[in-house]
Amino acid sequence: MSQQQASIAVSTVIFALRSDPTTGVSTVWIPVVRRIREPHEGRWALPGGPLRIDDDLEAAARNHLVETTALTPKYLEQLYAFGDVGRSPGQRVVSIVYWALVESDEAARATVGENVTWLSTDELPELAFDHNLIVDYALWRLRTKMEYSRIAHAFLGDTFTLAQLREVHEAVRQKPLDPANFRRMIESSKTVVPTGDFVTGARHRPARLYRYDGSIDLADRGPLR
């Protein structure tokens, strides 16, 4: 007797920092797409789709992102495979999930509309399938890597102030950080170097601009504290 074969899908959790419209505080947001067919018609879901026969995994993730959100993240990493038997009603689907980070400027250029929107990870509704679980796992990975790697770079432009870098850490870790202690931690890590330039047009003392040391990989596991 023949058995139905499992299908393979590829999805991506894309993280960006956006200001909370009420408080103005930066928090972590993700783009989601509305499902237009069953199962879970009408619910928000992570961008993704079936693995095409002629795509490798990362190419599939990037293609689905372009098609649904127009985003082309520089940082894209495979997260995990999700394949519980009952995760997709009526069929057996294994999802290979990637996670990505984009700068605020790129996030602002993403396609949005009736079927694509951004949601704060602090206030997610019930998503389709097991996508809430996937987002939670991706957030855990992001927060863990923030502790030991230079991954915050992917949220920032080529140059940034230490206050902007601290804002990234605070948004991801969900806790305030003492500015003086944070400065000492970053300076002792030797991961950033001053550019010699300052923020222009500031009302107060101009803030110094920094850049990441290009000789250090984003995923380098050197200590940050």
Notable features of this structure?
225 residues, alpha+beta, seven-stranded mixed β-sheet, two-stranded antiparallel ribbon, 9 strands, 27% strand, disordered C terminus
Structure description:
The chain has helices at 57-69, 104-108, 131-148, 162-173, 179-189, and strands at residues 7-19, 26-34, 44-45, 48-50, 75-82, 93-101, 116-120, 192-198, 208-212. The longest helix has 18 residues, at 131-148. The chain is elongated, with a radius of gyration of 19 Å. Residues 220-225 have low confidence and may be disordered. With 225 residues, it is of the alpha+beta class. Helices cover 26% and strands 27% of the residues.
* Straight-line distance between termini: 59 Å
Proportion in helices: 25-40%
The strand count comes to 9
How does the overall form come out from the CA principal axes? elongated
Given the helix and strand composition, which structural class is it? alpha+beta
- Rounded to an integer in angstroms, the radius of gyration calculated over CA atoms is 19 Å
Largest sheet: 7 strands, mixed
Order of helices and strands: EEEEHEEHEHHHEE
What is the residue-mean pLDDT, rounded to a whole number? 91
The number of helical elements comes to 5
Strand content: 25-35%
Give the uncertain stretches in residue-range form.
220-225
